[in-house]
Amino acid sequence: MRALFFNENGIDNLKYGELPEPSLTEGEVLIRVVKAGVTQLDYMTVSSMKVSPLPHVPGSEFAGIVEEVKGKASVNPGDKVAVYTRTFDGTCSFCREGKEMLCTSGKRIGIDENGGYAEYVKVPSNLVVKADLHWDLMASLSISALAPYHALKEARVGKGATVVVFGASGSTGIFATQLAEIMGATVVAVTDHDFKISRHTVSYSQAEDYVRALTDGEMADVVVNPLGAKYWDLGVRLLRKSGRMVFFGTLTGSKVTLDLSSAYLSHVSFIGTFRGSFQEFKELAELCRKCKPYTWREFSLEEGKDALLALKSPERKGRIMLKVT
Ligand SMILES: [Zn+2]
């Protein structure tokens, strides 16, 4: 099969070529990949993360058509499926709490197992969900949409809330903005790229004045920060009393300082989140009927390296996708 793979970390080491097709064991499904998302996680996977097996096929979010099923499964060959890209046993204490993303025996597909940057990928059959959305949305559900959806739920975003989204033109920001609006919030989308996703789209330097004016000085209920340290202090300034900052990425750094006095006196919360639950993943297959993929550029599998490099482009306006089939 055609695939992107590497034996040693480094974007330049990502090769396009032929690999043997995966063979199924009991309880697995073979998926013919149609589309795969290109995210910062994929970039880090190729450039610096410890992976297995070698040669390794990256690709942490993807969707496709079921080609073959071995054993019992809720899907059949020909079904259009999205894939929850972290395995789980369903029996550990976290799984029993409905937090499959924290499963003690879970593996990350695309990192600890081969991922979706190939014509075919095999996954445990309990990870696939039948859905019928635009292929770019199908391929975005497992990380780009799920991470912010879970974060918004943990931050108790509801009708009438004011939510600020940092990195609004990035993969998770695009979905954070749309999902918060679907959940009834007023969303201030913050990005320095030329990318208008919400009625209230502003740059980082404008954000504080804008949110102050929009909320008559009260500031925001929730700040979604997928970017990490660089915008931490701004995020703190944007929170109203009793506000919540939710964070799930450290692209711009992972160390921050925090004035505990003003934090507790303002009754603010800082909530770290990681991916999302399988139940939330299934909810997205419905909720995202109202989403747009905001795809900026699509690359062929052969152009995988260019697709990863395009993540860093200052011209970038939206998502980057790989068309596999
Ligand atoms: Zn578990």
From TrEMBL:
Keyword Lyase: no
Superkingdom of the source species: Archaea
Key words of the record: Carbohydrate metabolism, NADP, Oxidoreductase
Any one GO biological process: protein tetramerization
Residues of the signal peptide: none
One protein family per Pfam: ADH_N
GO MF annotations, alphabetized: adenyl nucleotide binding; anion binding; oxidoreductase activity
Domain Enoyl reductase (ER): 10-322
PANTHER family per record: D-ARABINOSE 1-DEHYDROGENASE (NADP(+)), L-THREONINE 3-DEHYDROGENASE
Protein's name in the database: Alcohol dehydrogenase
Origin species: Candidatus Aramenus sulfurataquae
